[in-house]
Specification:
- The chain has 5 helices and 7 strands.
- By secondary structure, it is of the alpha+beta class.
- The two termini are about 20 Å apart.
Length: about 160
């Protein structure tokens, strides 16, 4: 039923509005910006398009019967996995998709990884719970104080999802 595939970075701009729709539907409830959809989309695109041009940055698409239901954005730097964003449509949250996805993902990632890091909006308790479930621990905040910084041992992910 579920399928996970890497986004085609050569044609990434075609899929970005669909990814943003998933992000916006989740984040407008958790951490609304107060901006219009159009302004938030413009801001997000201005950041994501240059970011996706960098080689180590990847987006994995989550599909259910060819319907886009979520995505995961990450990059690898040396022995570090930076989990940037995971977004799943509300109707698919809590269905086991997350566990299936991570089991798939660890088969694709380099075995040489040592650490995992991520940020979570301070208002996003669900995300914080997910990161803690993955074995990551809160270890600080970003500069403007609206995100928590999490880090953990990649071996914990391997053990949990192998």
């Amino acid at each position: 039923m579920y399928q996970f595939i890497y986004a085609d970075k050569q044609n990434i701009e075609e899929i970005l509005p669909y990814l943003f729709d998933i992000l916006y539907s989740n984040m407008s409830i958790i951490a609304p910006t107060g901006n219009t959809y159009e302004n938030d989309l413009k801001e997000w695109l201005s950041n994501i398009i240059p970011a996706m041009q960098k080689e180590p940055r990847q987006i994995v698409l989550m599909l259910a019967d060819s319907e886009l239901i979520g995505y995961f954005q990450y990059y690898i730097c040396s022995d570090l996995l930076m989990m940037e964003e995971i977004q799943i449509k509300k109707g698919y949250q809590g269905t086991g998709l997350f566990h299936l996805f991570y089991s798939w993902l660890i088969e694709k990632l380099p075995k040489s990884l040592k650490q995992v890091v991520a940020y979570s909006n301070k208002n996003n308790c669900k995300s914080q719970g997910v990161l803690e479930h993955l074995g990551l621990r809160k270890s600080g905040e970003n500069r403007n104080g609206n995100f928590f910084y999490y880090k953990g041992d990649y071996a914990v992910l391997l053990e949990k999802y192998s």
